[in-house]
Q: What sequence folds into this?
């Protein structure tokens, strides 16, 4: 089904075999009947009193005279199962794993107004399509955990297009945390509710914090998403993002962790792009912890509390990012955190929030870094979106590459020196750059190596010296 809002048209294209159909509105009907809900889904019965409607939903935007529709965004495939009791179960949509040492959080969404208490996450060894909430035999163990659920609305964000023609209801977002995992053990899991579960996935529990643990991590920023035929892009295509995703997947058995350090989906106010992005990373994010930090295209918007007042998030102001990626942060809209992973302790900051002297973030970073046990995690890795060291000719105040780098070196770099941080990863500038061990712009023994990896999928930056 699709709802019409005056000035914007949602068109449904049927993909399922149709035995019976409902009212199919014409384009004229949609233009002149603002506020109506058009039943334009097709239905068929595969048996067992279940009917399915499978469709692609496309948002379109018309010009002010309502005569020439302009392509706006295209949502993912959605399949809805109608059961005889009248409840709705949505086909399982992309999942993301996150971690904070000895636990894993699973996050997924559905497009229905599902009661929170109905959704559970089930973790179990393979049981050949029979997913149970109790052990299937005395040779297998099974654990059922209750999910927490949340969502966000257009009004939770702070500007257009995120709050109007770019908005697409995300449905309910669910997450389950599994703790007390055995380090290095492989777990199989499914998720869903009493009306059905996902296919079976698996992950390997994070390694124990130890100097003897080997960690294989993939780090990049600025990826976005793309399609093979370039059919679903609203703005700039990021076809190289497919290269990144495919390469990671080809080496997934040799990878333990992914760090995506800002500029995640490039949705920029068009919610359907988030759906496409999760479709793209699902083969990776269902098997590996996919850890992220926030970038300007997730957070920045005037008068929203961001450190810089650009319009780069197109009104999202970090809301979809935080809801879809539940990281172990201290509080809402404080997207900075740290975690152990094998022999490494990772610390991720936000360059889009205050990090000047006296800020909550700078105090957190100082306090957190002081607690790192280097006898367990001898490697200390730092990351943020905008780079502290960068070859760039962008001196535009206040948020050009060089003014930001100067600010970061003024307030954050002393902490890197104080706590002997080994390496720092950055994105934002779409290039690969690497420094010597450096402090205060001078190569020095005991300094931090800085690596810019804003090469995840966006077109490469040309503003080099």
A:
């Amino acid at each position: 089904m699709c709802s019409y809002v005056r000035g914007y048209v949602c068109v449904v294209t049927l993909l399922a075999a149709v035995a019976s159909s409902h009212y199919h509105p014409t384009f004229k009907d949609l233009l002149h009947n603002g506020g109506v809900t058009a039943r334009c889904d097709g239905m068929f019965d595969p048996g067992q009193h279940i009917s399915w409607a499978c469709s692609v939903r496309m948002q379109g935007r018309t010009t002010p005279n309502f005569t020439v529709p302009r392509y706006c965004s295209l949502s993912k495939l959605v399949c809805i199962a109608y059961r005889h009791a009248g409840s709705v179960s949505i086909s399982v949509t992309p999942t993301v794993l996150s971690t904070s040492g000895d636990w894993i959080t699973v996050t997924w969404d559905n497009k229905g107004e599902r009661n929170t208490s109905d959704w559970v996450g089930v973790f179990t060894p393979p049981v050949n399509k029979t997913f149970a909430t109790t052990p299937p035999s005395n040779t297998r163990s099974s654990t059922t955990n209750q999910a927490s659920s949340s969502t966000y609305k257009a009004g939770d964000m702070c500007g257009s297009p995120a709050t109007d023609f770019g908005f697409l209801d995300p449905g309910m977002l669910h997450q389950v945390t599994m703790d007390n995992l055995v380090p290095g053990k492989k777990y199989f899991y499914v998720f869903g509710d009493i009306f059905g579960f996902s296919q079976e996935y698996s992950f390997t529990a994070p390694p124990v914090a130890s100097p003897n643990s080997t960690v294989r991590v993939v780090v990049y920023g600025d990826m976005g998403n793309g399609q093979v035929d370039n059919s679903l892009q609203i703005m700039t295509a990021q076809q190289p993002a497919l290269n990144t995703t495919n390469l990671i997947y080809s080496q997934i058995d040799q990878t333990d962790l992914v760090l995506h350090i800002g500029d995640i989906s490039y949705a920029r106010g068009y919610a359907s792009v988030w759906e496409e992005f999760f479709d793209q990373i699902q083969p990776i994010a269902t098997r590996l912890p996919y850890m992220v930090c926030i970038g300007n295209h997730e957070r920045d918007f005037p008068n929203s509390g961001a450190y810089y007042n650009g319009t780069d998030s197109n009104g999202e102001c970090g809301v979809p990012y935080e809801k879809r990626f539940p990281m172990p942060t201290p509080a809402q809209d404080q997207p900075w955190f740290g975690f152990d992973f094998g022999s490494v302790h990772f610390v991720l900051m936000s360059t889009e929030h205050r990090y000047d002297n006296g800020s909550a973030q700078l105090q957190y970073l100082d306090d957190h870094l002081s607690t790192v046990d280097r006898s367990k995690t001898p490697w200390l890795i730092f990351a943020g979106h905008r780079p502290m060291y960068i070859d760039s000719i962008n001196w535009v105040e206040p948020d050009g590459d060089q003014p930001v780098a100067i600010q970061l070196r003024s307030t954050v770099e002393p902490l890197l020196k104080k706590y002997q941080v080994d390496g720092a990863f950055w994105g934002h500038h779409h290039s690969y750059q690497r420094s010597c061990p450096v402090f205060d712009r001078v190569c020095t023994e005991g300094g931090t190596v800085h690596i810019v990896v804003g090469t995840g999928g966006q077109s490469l930056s040309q503003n080099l010296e």
